[in-house]
Amino acid sequence: MKIAFGCDHAGFVLKDAVVKFLRSKDGIELIDFGAYEYDHDDDYTGPAIKVGRAILEEEADAGVLLCGTGFGIAIAANKVPGIRAVPCNHAHYAKMAKAHNNANVITLGGTLLKPEEVPEILETWLSTEFEGGRHIRRINKIAQIERSTLNVIYQGGGRVVIFNHPLVQHKVGIIRDINTSVKQFRELLQEIAGLMVYEITRNLPLTDKEVQTPIEKTTVKTIEGKKLAIVPVLRAGLGMVDGILRVVPNAKVGHIGLYRDPKTLEPVEYYCKLPFDIEEREIFVLDPMLATGGSASAAISLIKKRGGRKISLVCLIAAPDGIERVHKDHPDASIFIAALDSHLNDHGYIVPGLGDAGDRLFGTK
Question: Which residues are part of the catalytic machinery?
Answer without folding.
Answer: 260, 264, 356, 359
